[in-house]
Every structure is written in structure tokens, then in C-alpha cells.
Design brief:
547 residues, alpha+beta, 16 strands, elongated
């Protein structure tokens, strides 16, 4: 007879599940003198429930994973029944049999011990009388607590990741959150084991990426048909799929929690990543998103140096014996509307010119390109071909753009600095487009230098000193700008502002008085011109950079 009714099979993927070894380690067990007499190699079996039963045919009532507690009253004196009992436990896939000595057996029955060893069923005997009710109460309490913890963990992960998805968070932010929950590095790979994104401890990631070929082979060995596979050393591999199509894997390296909680994390993370893909741009794969994210981080200066090699390789760009040239293309105002976007056009040009490169949008009117050119080829010539084709294709559509480039980089470590230069060059070229197909820092001269320094506090203080009173007087500031841009030609400046020459003279006198300057002094004029360029650069950078 049984004094407990076990629940149906647990389908909630519980975390914190106990094993037979865990049950044996309870303080309560120590008082009853437990001894493992058979099946010691199988003590890591998970325990789903405890079942107190004296019936010889109890096996038919079990669903697997139970520890069966018995005194063996109905088995005493019948070795054949003892063997049959153990065999029925094996068929029922029990976690273990716990036999209390004293009522039916004074010592371990040899027939049961031999059968248990042969069947691989852990057989544990208690040498001192044990109230089974206390043991079941303790174990069931821990099982229920573990299942509650699993549900709590599952809910917390799902809520956090769903909130990120619904807020439109980028893939990197979602992966960062997954790595934070796991307390270990997280790597997103496609079906070819190519890294698309990484998150987590930088040093650990560097070690993994340094030997990724070997690591990826080990990951491939863990891949099964199961949605989530938990391997040795806390490696977790979760399949990424939706609508019956698999497109990649999430791999967590060195998860410190239990196997079951790792399985919960893997499942919830895979669900969130599937949602992110479905909510995103279905026409573009994560490979394209990875490239765009990389270019955006490079253009803004936010790319992490230690992850650069991994991310460039992940985007499919050749990295061995190459010269890297960052390029920024910005369309000019007044360009005709056209169906084909600038990134798509540039991507086609790279393909036709057989130049390896990544292309991605940065902002509303900018496109970033990272060219990868073999060392034995002329990088400047390749860049010029791409730039010329860009101008010609755009001109045929009634569109115009400037192409700004940074310096060529022999190593990836230099790319971040060069990309920042390319952004500033393109920005400066928009204000004064050069005659050349490609603008470099030397082509934008003073305007380019000011753009490079526009975020420096010393330059901001210089603007205040030179132009302070005019910054709140837009009409006079515009007059000063026109006067300087026309080479101090008062007639042209008056025409540009649709005023008479005497009216222009009065405004220039007001400027001299407000700023306490002499507009006939070339050094003072030069300072005013530099301050105006710096002010324009700040305005172009957006409100947060302006006064």
C-alpha cells in the first residue's frame, strides 16, 4: 500500500531537482545509518518523488524517477520475489530503492543486492529505524521549493527578455542580458558555426575566440535534435528556430548553475532570440544585422577593441594580410528620391568591382563601408574605383553624395580611430564638398580639423569666448558668417541678406561692438572664422553637442 499519491509526469522543466546523492546527503539521513550496497555508480539519477510502498507489484504504479521506500515485509524469505521486485524497479526506471532494515530483514538480502547491482538500480539500506514520513516530507518540500525556484527563474528570464524585445532593443543588448542571467559568456552562431555576436566576460571571450575552430568542433559534437543540450563543464547549446526553420545556435560557456536551471535558461533565451528575429527585418539575416551593428559601433567609436577581430570575422570579411579602409558616404540635400537605398547600391558596386567590404547604414543619410583589400593590391586605387562608381551611379539618378575616407589600416586595432576620422571627414565634406572623388583629412583642411575636435571642452570654451554674445542673436551671427564666407565682400554680403550696404554696415558695427573686435584685424578675423566653423560642427552633431 502507498501513503502518497505521486503527481503526473512533470512537464515544467524543473530546476533545482534533487539526485539520489543529494537525498543521501541530507542531515536527516545521517541519523538512520544509510549504506549504498548496490548501484553506487548511478547515484546521480534525478529524483522526481518519494513513494512509500510495501506492495510487491508497486512497479506498475510508478512513472519513473521515484525513490521507493520499503521495509520488504512481503519479500522476506522469498529470493525469487526479491529478484522480481528489483527487476520491476528497473523496468519502472526508479531512481533508487531504499530498504529499511529491522522489520523484515536484519541484514541486506544477498539476492536483492545481486539483482540490484546487475540491473543498475541503487539499493540503499538504513541500519537504524527510520520514520519514512519524515523523509518524504523533507524531500518533497525541497522538490516543491526547487520547482517554485525553477518557475520563478523561468518567469524572470522571460519577462526581462520579452521587455527588451518589445522595446525594440538591438540583438547585442538582448545577448548581453542573456549572458548576465547565465553569469557566463554567450555566443550566437549560425548553422555553419560562424560567430554572429558575443556577450559576457571579455577575457573569457578572448580565450574562446582565439581557438574558435577547436571550440566550434566541440560545440558541434554537443548539437543534438533536442532543443537544449547541456554538456560537460556547463556548456549549454540551444537551437534557434521558428516556424520549423532552424538558423543557428546559442552557446553558453561555463554556466555555473545546475543542469536543470541551465536548461531553463537555454529554452527561455532561445524563445527570446526567436521572437527578436520574427519582430525584426525578415528580409535581412542576422549576418547582415551583425555587420550593420559592427559598422555602427565603429562609426560611433563604441566598438570594443578586444571583440573587433571576432566581429569582423563573424561578418564574413577577410582579415589575413589585408589593408582596411573605413569609408563614410553621405548624401547631399536636394538629391532626387530613388527606390534603391544607398547601402544596397554600394553593396552592388563592391560586388561588381570585386572589392571585399561590409556596408551598413549609420543615421538617416549616412552609409558606412569597411573595405578589406589584399596587401599586394593598391588600396587607394580600389577606393577610388568604388568612389567614382558611387558618384556616377548616383548622378544618373539625380542624386549627389560625398565620400569620406579614413587612413588605411594594416591592423584591425587601428580601424576604430580611422573610422572616427572618416566620419568627421564626411561631415566636413558635406559643408564644403571637395573636387576629388574621395575626401581625406587633408582635403577638408581647417574645417576637417575643427570637426575632429568639436567635442573637446577647450574648443567649446573657445566658441563661447569668441562668439558668446552672438550665439543668442541668430541674424547677426548669419551676417558675420556670410561676410567671412564672401571674403569680406560687403556688396555680396548685402545682396545675400537682401539689405542695403548702409544697413549691412550698421550690422557689422553692431557685431564689432558686441564682440569687442576689429573686423579689419586678420588675426581676430581668423579666430572668428575658426569659432564659426566649430559652432557649425557642433550644430551638425546634434542638440546634445550644441550650446
Amino acid at each position: 500500500m502507498s501513503d502518497e499519491t505521486p503527481p503526473g509526469p512533470d512537464t515544467r522543466d524543473p530546476a533545482g531537482r534533487l539526485t539520489v546523492r543529494d537525498v543521501l546527503g541530507l542531515d536527516l539521513m545521517a541519523t538512520w545509518g544509510p549504506e549504498v550496497v548496490a548501484g553506487a555508480a548511478h547515484l546521480d539519477r534525478p529524483v522526481r518523488w518519494l513513494h512509500v510502498a510495501e506492495a510487491a507489484d508497486v512497479g506498475v504504479m510508478l512513472t519513473g524517477g521515484e525513490i521507493v521506500l520499503t521495509t520488504g515485509l512481503l519479500l522476506a524469505g522469498d529470493e525469487q520475489a526479491q529478484v522480481a521486485y528489483v527487476e520491476s524497479m528497473q523496468r519502472a526506471d526508479v531512481a533508487a530503492v531504499l530498504l529499511g532494515l529491522g522489520r523484515a530483514f536484519r541484514t541486506t538480502p544477498p539476492a536483492m543486492r545481486r539483482a540490484a547491482e546487475r540491473c543498475g538500480v541503487p539499493l540503499i539500506v538504513l541500519h537504524r529505524p527510520a520514520p519514512f514520513a519524515r523523509l518524504t516530507e523533507e524531500v518533497h518540500s525541497q522538490l516543491v521549493h526547487g520547482r517554485f525556484a525553477a518557475l520563478n527563474l523561468s518567469d524572470r528570464i522571460r519577462s526581462s527578455l520579452t521587455a527588451l524585445n518589445l522595446s525594440g532593443a538591438p540583438l547585442q543588448q538582448l545577448l548581453d542580458e542573456i549572458a548576465s542571467f547565465g553569469g557566463c559568456p554567450a555566443v550566437l552562431v549560425n548553422l555553419a558555426q560562424r560567430v554572429l555576436a558575443t556577450a559576457g566576460d571579455r577575457n573569457s571571450l578572448s580565450e574562446l575566440m582565439r581557438d574558435w575552430d577547436r571550440v566550434s568542433r566541440q560545440v558541434a559534437e554537443l548539437v543534438r535534435n533536442d532543443p537544449v543540450t547541456v554538456g560537460p563543464d556547463g556548456w549549454i547549446v540551444a537551437a534557434l528556430e521558428a516556424r520549423g526553420q532552424r538558423w543557428g545556435w546559442l552557446v553558453l560557456f561555463g554556466y555555473p548553475g545546475s543542469e536543470e536551471s541551465g536548461r531553463v535558461l537555454g529554452q527561455r533565451a532561445a524563445e527570446a532570440l526567436a521572437m527578436h528575429r520574427l519582430l525584426g527585418d525578415r528580409d535581412r539575416g542576422w549576418e547582415d544585422h551583425a555587420a550593420q551593428s559592427l559598422l555602427g559601433d565603429l562609426a560611433s567609436g563604441a566598438a570594443r577593441p578586444e571583440q573587433l577581430l571576432t566581429r569582423v570575422r563573424a561578418a564574413g570579411l577577410p582579415v589575413n594580410r589585408r589593408t582596411f579602409v573605413p569609408v563614410v558616404v553621405r548624401e547631399l540635400a536636394g538629391s532626387a528620391a530613388d527606390r534603391e537605398g544607398l547601402p544596397q547600391l554600394l553593396d552592388r558596386i563592391l560586388g561588381e568591382e570585386s572589392v571585399a567590404g561590409l556596408v551598413g547604414s549609420i543615421g538617416a543619410d549616412g552609409t558606412a563601408v569597411l573595405l578589406s583589400i589584399p596587401h599586394d593590391q593598391d588600396a587607394d586605387a580600389a577606393l577610388r574605383r568604388v568612389a567614382v562608381q558611387t558618384h556616377e551611379r548616383l548622378a544618373a539618378r539625380g542624386r549627389r553624395a560625398v565620400v569620406g575616407a579614413g587612413f588605411g589600416c594594416a591592423v584591425l586595432d587601428e580601424v576604430r580611430r580611422s573610422f572616427v576620422e572618416a566620419v568627421h571627414v564626411a561631415d566636413a565634406a558635406v559643408a564644403g564638398p571637395p573636387a576629388t572623388a574621395v575626401a581625406r583629412l587633408r582635403d577638408v583642411r581647417l574645417r576637417g580639423l575643427v570637426r575632429l575636435l568639436r567635442d573637446e571642452p577647450e574648443l567649446q570654451a573657445f566658441i563661447e569666448r569668441e562668439l558668446g554674445p552672438l550665439l543668442e542673436n541668430a541674424p547677426l551671427l548669419a551676417v558675420l558668417r556670410t561676410y567671412l564666407e564672401t571674403g569680406r565682400n560687403k556688396s555680396l554680403a548685402a545682396q545675400a541678406h537682401h539689405v542695403s550696404r548702409p544697413a549691412l554696415y550698421r550690422r557689422l558695427e553692431s557685431i564689432q561692438t558686441l564682440l569687442d573686435v576689429d573686423l579689419d584685424d586678420w588675426e581676430q578675423l581668423t579666430s572668428l572664422y575658426v569659432a564659426l566653423l566649430a559652432h557649425e560642427a557642433q550644430q551638425a552633431a546634434g542638440p546634445e553637442a550644441a550650446r
